């Protein structure tokens, strides 16, 4: 019984170690030659414009090390004579597998959005 537990524990340790080595070696190889296609989308979250950018692997894409979303909002200022002021909000730089998210403030409308990348 004890020998069976030791064998099972050794097998589990070998599988976990092999999976860990696979993740370690996959990172640099993925960053070195992989190409990505980045997209962005905008929707309302509790009445506030929210933009999200994400990058997926693609053979027709380009080399990307980091990406972020840029959201341009029209902020309404003034009570008697309201006027719009364009306000640019930048999301955090993220790796290709992660999402970059940014939101405008209240009393804002979406003017434009885009994805910025670093090679």
SSE blueprint:
Blueprint: H1 2-33, E1 36-45, E2 48-57, E3 66-77, E4 83-90, E5 100-103, E6 108-118
Antiparallel strand pairs: 1-2, 2-5, 3-4, 3-6
Helix content: 25-40%
Spatial strand arrangement across the major sheet:
1-2-5
Radius of gyration, Cα only, in angstroms?
23 Å
How would a crystallographer describe the biggest sheet? 3 strands, antiparallel
Distance between the termini: 55 Å
- Tally the beta strands: 6
Overall spatial form: elongated
- Number of contiguous helices: 1
* Average of pLDDT: 79
Low-confidence stretches: 7-31
Helix and strand run: HEEEEEE
Report the sheet-strand fraction. over 45%
Q: Assign the structural class, choosing from mainly alpha, mainly beta, alpha/beta, alpha+beta, or little secondary structure.
A: alpha+beta
Tell me what the structure shows:
The chain starts with a helix and ends with a strand. By secondary structure, the chain is an alpha+beta fold. It is built from one helix and six strands; from the N terminus they run αββββββ. The strands form two sheets. It has a three-stranded antiparallel sheet with strand order 1-2-5, with no helix packed on it. The relative contact order is 0.20.
Looking at this protein, list some descriptive labels.
119 residues, 3-stranded antiparallel sheet, 1 helix, alpha+beta
In short:
With 119 residues, the chain is of the alpha+beta class. The protein is built from one helix and six strands. It has a three-stranded antiparallel beta sheet, with no helix packed on it. Strands 4-3-6 form a three-stranded antiparallel beta sheet, with no helix packed on it.
């Amino acid at each position: 019984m004890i020998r069976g537990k030791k064998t099972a524990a050794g097998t589990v340790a070998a599988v976990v170690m092999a999976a860990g080595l696979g993740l370690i070696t996959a990172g640099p190889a993925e960053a070195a030659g992989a190409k990505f296609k980045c997209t962005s989308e905008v929707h309302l979250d509790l009445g506030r414009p929210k933009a999200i950018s994400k990058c997926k692997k693609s053979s027709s894409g380009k080399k990307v090390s980091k990406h972020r979303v840029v959201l341009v909002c029209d902020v309404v200022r003034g009570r008697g004579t309201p006027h719009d002021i364009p306000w640019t909000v930048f999301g955090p730089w993220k790796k290709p597998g992660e999402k970059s998210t940014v939101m405008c403030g209240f009393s804002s409308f979406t003017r434009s959005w885009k994805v910025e990348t670093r090679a």
